[in-house]
Specification:
Two copies of one chain form a homodimer. Chain A is of the alpha/beta class. Chain A has a domain of about 210 residues: Rossmann fold, CATH 3.40.50.300. Chain A has a seven-stranded parallel β-sheet with strand order 3-2-4-1-5-6-7, with helices on both faces. Chain A is globular, with a radius of gyration of 21 Å. Chains A and B meet through helix 3, helix 5, helix 7, helix 8 and helix 11 of A and helix 3, helix 5, helix 7, helix 8 and helix 11 of B.
Amino acid sequence: MDLVQQILDGNVRAIARAISLVENGDPQAVPLIKALYPHAGRAYLIGVTGPPGGGKSTLVDKLIAHYRTQEQKVGVVAVDPTSPFSGGALLGDRVRMQAHATDPGVFIRSMGSRGHLGGLAVATADAAAVLDAAGYGVIMLETVGIGQSEVEVASQVDTTLLVTVPGLGDDVQVLKAGTMEIADVFVVNKADRDGVEKCVIEIEQLLGAREMDESTFLPPIVQVIARDNKGITELAGAIEKHRAHLAAGGRLESRRKQRLRNQVHAIIINKLDRWAHARLTDDMEARENLEGMYLRKTDPYAVAEEILKQLALNDDQ
Amino acid sequence: MDLVQQILDGNVRAIARAISLVENGDPQAVPLIKALYPHAGRAYLIGVTGPPGGGKSTLVDKLIAHYRTQEQKVGVVAVDPTSPFSGGALLGDRVRMQAHATDPGVFIRSMGSRGHLGGLAVATADAAAVLDAAGYGVIMLETVGIGQSEVEVASQVDTTLLVTVPGLGDDVQVLKAGTMEIADVFVVNKADRDGVEKCVIEIEQLLGAREMDESTFLPPIVQVIARDNKGITELAGAIEKHRAHLAAGGRLESRRKQRLRNQVHAIIINKLDRWAHARLTDDMEARENLEGMYLRKTDPYAVAEEILKQLALNDDQ
């Protein structure tokens, strides 16, 4: 396949086209990824996540600049919650990263999060595989928000940065608690704001409640002011420290195997989700069942069991 | 079943026990929900979602007080992102709602979001069914954050409130775009803050880009200061306006049928997710495949296809 060779040669137009195929769930994407797969596996993947308002785009911008001084090609896949009528807002947000628009060693791409379950995980993993095969040594996956999508994306990287800022209010405490497990490095951005000590102490308290043994990596807390390019070298050092931790004792291999397991799971769920949607929308019986449920003559469990009978599930979980 | 009758009688301990069964995915939950199902369907369900820092708990608190003046029993299910070591933070957040702790007409419950795909949607729908059968006329489902979980919860209510506040920064624009589709009423909380006009204008601009016809409900934008109990009556009026819109022309029936479809889908996906996890962790073959993928001798698509062959998927989606 010509496209495969062009991607391996680092052709930016070919890379962009491949990621579009992946994003759109085009049938051509599967053989393409299969062909690229033996050439991928060399890149280091960094996840960047956290609540909105954390200045993640600016932070990613500065990290790109840092890795470019090390002569590394850098790829970024930014996942945005999308809707049919929000194109403008997303473009506006991404404009900030255009500082690198003329640098051929930097590839930045936004990707929507709509679609079937597992679809985002499959698409981001595949986009990363394209960039990886094309020779990008550092790949960042950026997500806005907190939830299943973020956990899915975090399950596909080597190091996850959790970015927060001082003064986001009480809910952020809850939020941080929910994402603590996926964080390898905590980043407190806008560290010149009031409340930075309180923010750091809150993270330390949550970390203190974590179960530790000698093989546990204690996530460092790095204060940065991304806008002013302050603390970026320290942050890169913290990422490097986590990378070294993984490299020791076969941890990187076991993390990457877990990542592969997650990818297979996402592909399976994506397929089964499509199957379930088709059953629920196409089957005449399902429509009759819908009427029955509305009239409370049957219930969702009974209808689901009926549909699941079509599959020979070989265990009783 | 004795528990069923106790719930129908409005026994609070029985309700709490039923919701625990639901939350823990206990096998006893399914027959319980089936038995309660014919008695549910009378409650009006309101979803409350939005980015962290929006003051949703306080807002819910004031809405409870409003509906209590109308002699309605009010149930609240608050979904928190949970982790094994975050119990304290969650409790802290919920303490704010304890103003109603001694009111037998109010039932408030937090629920974790961990677990299998679809699990949260199943659990919140089932918890709502318990409260519905027990005679709670207004049920609020509150979620923190934005993502798949919020869309899942929004797909299960009659009216969804999207709560935001002025001055959360640029990312919130992106965030709002992602949730615009699920919002029936926009709430701008902390409306005494700087930037409230800008916030309202941004929402109006996003709404302006929406495709409209005469059957479309234009989501009102309501400014409130929940802490000071300001704007709550107006908000309740906006909810009532949406309810009246649904009541006309069979829209409520069609929305509730969509809700039932979503519930069946969540039950199916939850079951299939467990099946997929079992295949990926138990099967010796899957472990060999994992090694093969790590060495790039095979790829995730090939492994997924192999596992999916165990199911008789009767279409090629």
